């Protein structure tokens, strides 16, 4: 027969075991607390590094920065710290905060920058180091350039055979009158006006000169073509076999504007160009380049290369054909489009 006190003893033993304080809580030096998300994030970020660290969070290494004067540095476990730019001391901290910001005065915007962070222990020994190399972004040049005058606009584009219906029965030829393809009549007449086109199978053809073996063009004359083999000229070629660039290239009269000149038109500056046919989708800065000429482009007239027919029809709603624009040449803000800059 089991004694009455045995179950009571088991119950008391279980209660004592459950209520016992963990052994590590009994040590006076141990303190327990929760960690904030920020502390956990920093711990994860630096988990693989030494206890002492200085980390340049901004700018990033190998980038082009619009504000080269701003920097953000994270410190941990250092007594003093120095921020050095191209060998020049920018800032010295005594017991820095975990995150410090610094704003300096740039001497110029052309010199590449080397930014270094050096952290020292209480004995003055270097215990943490970081470095980033970056390049300042040149400030916007506001000078519009030399005034050319008021010019009126037309548009041209890369004609695409797939956009035109009809039997492929019209022959087109190269300049030696060798057959290149048979195409629909509407495409044949369109491409001889636009100057460049894409055949059904994807081949890009471009104006090569006048010849006697082709059908008459609506604007007069007979046009023969060459096949564009340069993969960088998928939109056709300009007047000196240079690649045309949608929404940037214009055809001009070279007696008014020389080939390759960069142009600025303030009326286009800030215009939102919608994304269509794989081009556009940005805000225009008003910068163009004189890449082409045309038989009908004379005097105060320029031809805007819209890239596609759909883009032309859309831009017509903003600036109709024969609208006039103020044109400047060699604007500093458009220097990045100069041939030598490419």
Note down, in words, how this protein is organized.
With 342 residues, the protein is mostly beta strands. It folds into 3 domains: 38-136, Sandwich (Immunoglobulin-like), CATH 2.60.40; 140-158 and 242-342, RlpA-like domain (Barwin-like endoglucanases), CATH 2.40.40; 163-234, no CATH class. 12% of the residues lie in helices and 35% in strands. It has helices spanning 5-19, 37-45, 185-194, 309-316; strands spanning 53-58, 64-65, 70-76, 80-85, 88-94, 99-103, 113-120, 126-136, 146-157, 159-160, 170-173, 179-183, 196-198, 204-210, 223-227, 249-251, 262-264, 272-273, 282-283, 287-292, 301-307, 324-329. The radius of gyration is 35 Å and the shape is elongated.
Which features would summarize this protein structure in a list?
five-stranded mixed beta sheet; 342 residues; six-stranded mixed β-barrel; Immunoglobulin-like; Barwin-like endoglucanases; mainly beta
Question: Concise description?
Answer:
The chain is mainly beta.
Q: In percent, how helical is the residue content? A: 10-25%
> Total strand count, please?
22
CATH superfamily of the largest domain: RlpA-like domain
Distance between the termini: 102 Å
Mean pLDDT: 84
The main pleated sheet reads as: 6 strands, mixed, barrel
Q: How many independent structural domains? A: 3
Radius of gyration: 35 Å
Q: Strands of the biggest beta sheet: in what spatial order?
A: 9-21-16-20-17-22
Order of helices and strands: HHEEEEEEEEEEEEHEEEEEEEEEHE
The CATH class of the largest domain: Mainly Beta
Oligomer: single chain
CATH topology of the largest domain: Barwin-like endoglucanases
User: Count the helices. How many?
Assistant: 4
| CATH architecture type of the largest domain | Beta Barrel
What overall form do the CA principal axes indicate? Answer: elongated
Give unreliable regions as ranges: 12-35
Task: Give the percentage of residues in beta strands.
Answer: 25-35%
């Amino acid at each position: 027969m089991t004694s009455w006190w045995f179950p009571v003893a088991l119950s008391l033993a279980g209660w004592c075991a459950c209520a016992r304080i963990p052994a590590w809580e009994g040590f006076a030096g141990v303190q327990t607390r929760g960690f904030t998300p920020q502390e956990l994030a920093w711990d994860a970020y630096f988990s693989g590094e030494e206890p002492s660290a200085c980390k340049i969070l901004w700018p990033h290494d190998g980038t082009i920065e619009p504000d080269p004067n701003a920097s953000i540095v994270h410190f941990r476990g250092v007594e003093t710290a120095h921020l050095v730019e191209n060998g020049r001391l920018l800032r010295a901290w005594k017991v820095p905060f975990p995150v410090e910001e610094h704003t300096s005065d740039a001497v110029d915007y052309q010199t590449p920058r080397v930014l270094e962070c050096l952290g020292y222990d209480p004995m003055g020994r270097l215990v943490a180091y970081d470095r980033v190399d970056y390049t300042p972004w040149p400030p916007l040049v506001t000078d519009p350039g030399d005034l050319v005058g008021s010019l009126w606009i037309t548009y041209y584009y890369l004609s695409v055979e797939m956009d035109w219906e009809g039997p492929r029965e019209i022959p087109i030829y190269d300049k030696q009158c060798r057959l290149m393809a048979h195409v629909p009549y509407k495409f044949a007449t369109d491409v001889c006006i636009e100057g460049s086109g894409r055949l059904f199978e994807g081949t890009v053809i471009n104006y090569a000169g006048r010849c006697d073996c082709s059908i008459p063009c609506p604007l007069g004359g007979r046009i023969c073509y060459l096949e564009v083999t340069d993969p960088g000229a998928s939109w056709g070629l300009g007047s000196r076999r240079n690649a045309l660039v949608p929404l940037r290239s214009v055809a001009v009269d070279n007696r008014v504007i020389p080939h390759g000149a960069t142009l600025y038109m303030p009326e286009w500056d800030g215009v939102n160009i919608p994304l269509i046919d794989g081009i556009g989708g940005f805000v225009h800065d008003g910068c163009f380049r004189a890449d082409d000429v045309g038989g009908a482009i004379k005097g105060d007239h320029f031809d805007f290369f819209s890239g596609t027919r759909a883009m032309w029809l859309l831009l017509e709603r903003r600036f109709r054909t024969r609208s006039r624009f103020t044109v400047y040449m060699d604007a500093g803000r458009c220097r990045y489009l100069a041939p030598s800059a490419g």
